[in-house]
Amino acid sequence: MSNRYAYLGPEGTFTEAALRALMPTASTGDLVPCAGVDMVFAAVRRGEVDGGVVPLENSVEGGVPATTAELVGGDPLLIAAEVAVPVEFTLFAREGTTLADVKRVASHSHALAQCRGWLAANLPDAETFTVSSTAAAAQAVAEPGAPYDAAVSARIAGARYGLAPLVEGVGDRTEAATRFVYLRRPGALPEPTGADRTSLVAFLPEDHPGALVELLNQFAVRDVNLTRLESRPTGDGLGTYCFFMDADGHVAEARVGEALMGLRRVCEDVRFLGSYPRADADSDPTPFVPRAGTTNADFHEAEQWLTRIRSGIVD
Amino acid sequence: MSNRYAYLGPEGTFTEAALRALMPTASTGDLVPCAGVDMVFAAVRRGEVDGGVVPLENSVEGGVPATTAELVGGDPLLIAAEVAVPVEFTLFAREGTTLADVKRVASHSHALAQCRGWLAANLPDAETFTVSSTAAAAQAVAEPGAPYDAAVSARIAGARYGLAPLVEGVGDRTEAATRFVYLRRPGALPEPTGADRTSLVAFLPEDHPGALVELLNQFAVRDVNLTRLESRPTGDGLGTYCFFMDADGHVAEARVGEALMGLRRVCEDVRFLGSYPRADADSDPTPFVPRAGTTNADFHEAEQWLTRIRSGIVD
Amino acid sequence: MSNRYAYLGPEGTFTEAALRALMPTASTGDLVPCAGVDMVFAAVRRGEVDGGVVPLENSVEGGVPATTAELVGGDPLLIAAEVAVPVEFTLFAREGTTLADVKRVASHSHALAQCRGWLAANLPDAETFTVSSTAAAAQAVAEPGAPYDAAVSARIAGARYGLAPLVEGVGDRTEAATRFVYLRRPGALPEPTGADRTSLVAFLPEDHPGALVELLNQFAVRDVNLTRLESRPTGDGLGTYCFFMDADGHVAEARVGEALMGLRRVCEDVRFLGSYPRADADSDPTPFVPRAGTTNADFHEAEQWLTRIRSGIVD
Amino acid sequence: MSNRYAYLGPEGTFTEAALRALMPTASTGDLVPCAGVDMVFAAVRRGEVDGGVVPLENSVEGGVPATTAELVGGDPLLIAAEVAVPVEFTLFAREGTTLADVKRVASHSHALAQCRGWLAANLPDAETFTVSSTAAAAQAVAEPGAPYDAAVSARIAGARYGLAPLVEGVGDRTEAATRFVYLRRPGALPEPTGADRTSLVAFLPEDHPGALVELLNQFAVRDVNLTRLESRPTGDGLGTYCFFMDADGHVAEARVGEALMGLRRVCEDVRFLGSYPRADADSDPTPFVPRAGTTNADFHEAEQWLTRIRSGIVD
């Protein structure tokens, strides 16, 4: 029996594109579109699917609040993979529509924001309408008696809803990308690959100058590089924050493991979110080489030395 | 002639409530609702208004991406004031509607998310509809032939659109709050009050382990407390981040000034976003007392000492 | 058969007093005076004695170079105990001598330096002579046809050489003290007592700004307090230093052990010098309480947590 | 009228050699030998001489306690220059003496310690005698009816006392060197040369974990490299230390000045000991290049930026 995967729908979203990139052999029947990020989490938590894909952060908008909220709260899930998908927007319309016909454009608010420059220059008189997703916009345009003339959507949405591409690349930032993560219920972690990422949420013990420096020092002294650090309210009012962190490396590595133990000891709480292969590993030709003193072998040697000196053996 | 203020509209939003709290003497005619955060910034930048109010962060959702994007990019504006507004949701309907009549509820997606528990418990069969703001939901409910029976909105929206409150306090988190900031064009800063906040964006020089620790050390060695730290993509793709920071204190203070100079020297770039009175100063009965060695007097004494020893005067 | 102990002689030195404080049941026949610190080390290394006592640091003069040189180089020995002895100087003379008779005073150069004020005020016309130790001064005064009239020595020297105390407390600093250590060949360490000290020598990897901070951070992140830090030339010319360190705690403790492993990984070399009970433990009424997060139990809990998350178990 | 200089005598010491290297045009009549380091300080303090030369540290023995004690206490003097002198020991005897004749060798205790290997190998049966300086040993050997056959001394001592060199290079470590400093009363500092050193003593505020790291961070955040760090008892008993530090750079530089101000603010007390040209500047072919962000120009730019943002000017 094949695996089933939930994702942030409807069909034709960038999230579906991400899921297909992560699970290239999955058939359409195995993909379960959900109406919200929270519903993807719920489906995975309840075991209705084997895993789920949601957006984590966008190069233009930053973190996706709904995803971080679910990762921080609720029953824990683990990130088992990630993928970065270029955010390439296409203007879709029904067959036969020309650009001059377009008076009403629908899309997700973020998509409209990221295409504002193109729209102002090329469709200065068109009205824009915000709908719940870029795919919903395509779906709406495809319906008989559609209230909109065109949709700004992911390329994948065109085929799904039978629309014709009017213009490709209507986004203002060509390098925009969204990072998606694949979530599943707790269980065996992906094996270390040598180019991995570890995600976690740390809750600071108290609000005093230097508390955050102390926390980051737990990583720095073990030479663990942080690639992302984002404070988030804990939900207990303004002024109380937790820190969402991504670090280079796999928790199976000694240096990462010791850093996490250090964090565990100095924080109110630490929620481990997973260790998984980095999506940019392929594009990065230089493999990560830990600084002298931070390899597993260095940790092992130091442990053996500690065992010796604790027994009074010095040399 | 009175001052005019832009804000994230339409009328009846939490942002209007924030603006009224910040400018209690402003009359309704001086308030200019805008359709988006970017339009508030644009109105202030073009000088069409004296200042503008936008949401900066929410205790449940975190930072407001549209606001941070505008603060980081475009012509610089300065934050001159802040206010925290409790997020209290009210279920509004047309006069005569009872709870049992409510089948279709409209609101902003964030508001619906924050009332999900209440809605599931009290209106399990109602459909929810996402519109562009909580005020737009109220406005839509108020129209003749409205497609929705009720709106989840700010209290201020009820009077504005002639709706009756069905239930107050329908949010799942009673302590939720949103922090709003008042923006204006560059010019003289608010005077230090003794309980101030300084906001800025720092662009890290390169991606190496400990770079962030070095940056935070610039604050720690001057005993400047950071109250918020949020990494944001710079917009140049995933993996390149800038850091949005709030620190206790006013740039006019020596310790804050020196920390900012240090940041300026070690960062690719630093964008100063303003020094302004803390919104929570009233509720915090204990005035901030800088640690020994970090008062203006301490800095002044150290400067005089440096002048002396540079002249070879030691005692 | 009883144990035998070497010490920095001749008989009657402060070092003999220290040895008697450390080994109260040792008989005089078990104590082996040596002419130099290096000879004490040599006697212990060759197994001629069970252990040896040497001065490590003095509250007025600082570290004792001969001792640190021997600890850093040569076959390693371990410090197994320490004791602090008040440096109380007594002016001794032959029976019948009065203060007015004293024209020539002998002592060790350090002792003369520490009594300079008293000598200037009370024996302004006396000449001072430097001999190899305070005990040697007493010995010389006791000899027939002695070239000196009086000796500044430890109290213990008077009885040893049959001299009479002329004046007690002739030192200029009444709180002066010397810290002595008991050395023995490598072997089982003293058990942790809850108030211990760990000594070591660290060799920095290279000379770059912040290298020392990185090294000290290895202690700070594990909340291990350093009580002494002294740079010493490595002997390979000026500008190349090693760091002699004393830390609170026993290497058997998890926090100390992890700090030492960290040091081992980032340093060129680390020489462990021993973990042993603190001499000031009795005088310090408040037992050391590790900060939350640094007890053995905290380390154990964090290790168990790490084992769980490495297996994908999160809760 | 020519300048007069005190030094640690008697004539023929390594200190005299250092003084001649520092003041090559001084005539012998201008050099005032003193019997102790404290007397050199006293002569300078009383204005009897223009300046004085004393040993500061030795590559084998470490810091010279008498010098650091005088630098830390008493009326302040400033270090105005430094020089490193190779410690090359020569065995001197009266004309006509052969190595086989040498039964009794005199020298300073440190010199004997540093020649122990040579003496054991080449004069295994000779007795050694400790006198107050290597020059005093030469002087004693030169006297009629001398109690010693040979002296281990500096080369300069041979000519002074009319002795013949028996063997040159009898030290066990050929790379040994001593660093001497030239002291004068407070007054205009030497101009910055681009390769300078700054010396100071810092008194820590209290004994808590990380206090020393905080102190060193004051240097690290301004990228000021420490070349020497030595804890010394303050003289108020064991366990209370001050830190003797050498840093690269001149107090006239912005980065050094700001670091010293930071130190001044966080320490109980800081005693500035001088900024002066590094003795090893000539031998180091690569001029020091401050890291980006720490040049005087960087500090100046940051100050101008601070002035602008304090006026609300952002760009």
UniProtKB/TrEMBL annotation, chains A, B, C, D:
Domain Prephenate dehydratase: 4-185
Catalytic activity: prephenate + H(+) = 3-phenylpyruvate + CO2 + H2O
Keyword Lyase listed: yes
An example Gene Ontology biological process: L-phenylalanine biosynthetic process
A molecular-function term among this protein's GO annotations: prephenate dehydratase activity
CC terms in the record's Gene Ontology section: cytoplasm
Pathway annotation: Amino-acid biosynthesis; L-phenylalanine biosynthesis; phenylpyruvate from prephenate: step 1/1
EC number(s) given by UniProt: 4.2.1.51
Site positions for Essential for prephenate dehydratase activity: 178
Entry keywords, A to Z: Amino-acid biosynthesis, Aromatic amino acid biosynthesis, Lyase, Phenylalanine biosynthesis
Domain of life: Bacteria
Domain ACT: from-to ranges: 200-277
PANTHER family per record: PREPHENATE DEHYDRATASE P PROTEIN, PREPHENATE DEHYDRATASE-RELATED
Protein name: Prephenate dehydratase
UniProt gene name: pheA
